[in-house]
Amino acid sequence: MTQKNKANRLFLYGPLIFGVLLFVGWWGLWRTATQTILETVQGIIVEQEALGTKLSFDDFKAQGFPFLWRGTFSNFRAEKDGLHYHSDEIFIDALPYDLDRVIFSSRQTQTLKVGNDIIKLNAEKARASIEGDPEVAWLGKIESPQSNILLEKTNTSISTGAFLLNVKPEPRSNDGGDTVTDENSEAVREAPMNIATSFTISNIAVSYADNAFNIDDVEAVFSLKDILERERTKLVITGAGAAIGEARVLISGDLGTDFDGYLTGNLDTQIENPSALVAALAQAGVLNEQQAKTFTGVATFAAQKSGGTLSAPVILQNGKVKVMGFVVADAPRLVD
Predict the structure, then answer these.
(1) Are 257 and 264 within 8 A, CB to CB?
(2) In a 3-state reduction of DSSP, which class is residue 41?
(3) Helix 289-305 and helix 274-283: axis angle, to 10°?
(4) Which own/partner contact pairs does 97-106 have at CB distance under 8 Å and 24+ positions apart?
(5) What is the SS3 assignment for 286?
(6) Residue 96 contacts residue 33 (beta carbons within 8 Å)
(7) What is the dihedral of CA 271, 274, 276, 282, to 10 degrees?
(8) pTM of the prediction?
(9) What are the pLDDT digits (tens) for 93-152?
């Protein structure tokens, strides 16, 4: 065989051999991604069971080769403290060579059972993602162009337009350490993790019984702060706002639970054009005709004295809700 023939064969078979090696390498990478994600999911299941959350699914399959990697969990279930979540299918999408960003989705109706109430969520185009970040360890995001929620017990229907939620951890402590020392026992414990969150929702429509009302948009920036005692969580609202008709509601403050499980906290509420808010609440059936007249008069008078904006401090304490110093309702009990 001449040197020329050898060169021709190398030119002919070289790309084919390279293609086969590339295919085998890609297949190995794709299979490794499958194994890595499965092991990660199994690890999460074990960790959550230790924390009292039971996660389970009937079957898992990987597909999408040779392009985007997709894992499918069928009949996915989660249970904790009387909460039951179920979806016929949960999808996980990722690039085989970059598992640092993972996307979750479900085209099926998702069901959440809370006590005797059943909540059904239909958000076919919703996506949740989590990705690594060199500064704060990870970033989370949930977005959906539209969604529909049904509360079966009260036959309440909620539909929304665009929804966007961003989540990221804050430093565990002021000095960035991962542990703290308990003042009483002097035991070294994991420092509380605070979660910084922001979200926006547009075009919210709520209907129940013969009543209905709309909220043009809601936006909020807040933090979930862990409290060491009894593993409670405190919600610190940096700023939240909602446009309801011609009214605008602005809220800041903090919420949590007391040792009896009741919602507690202090909120600073500013209401622009409060009479429009009262009209919206009356239309929604929250206020009857007499209550609407009374609140409209009080709100208008108070707003006129403060330049058109009503300041209404809300205090939740000892199982009661006080607005401007008056008890208006019982505070909900969130923890038994």
Answers:
(1) yes
(2) helix
(3) 170
(4) 97/29, 97/33, 99/33, 99/36, 99/37, 100/131, 100/132, 101/129, 101/130, 101/131, 101/132, 102/37, 102/129, 102/130, 102/131, 103/127, 103/128, 103/129, 104/128, 104/129, 104/130
(5) coil
(6) yes
(7) 110
(8) 0.74
(9) 887 777 788 888 988 899 999 777 899 999 989 999 988 888 777 888 999 999 999 988
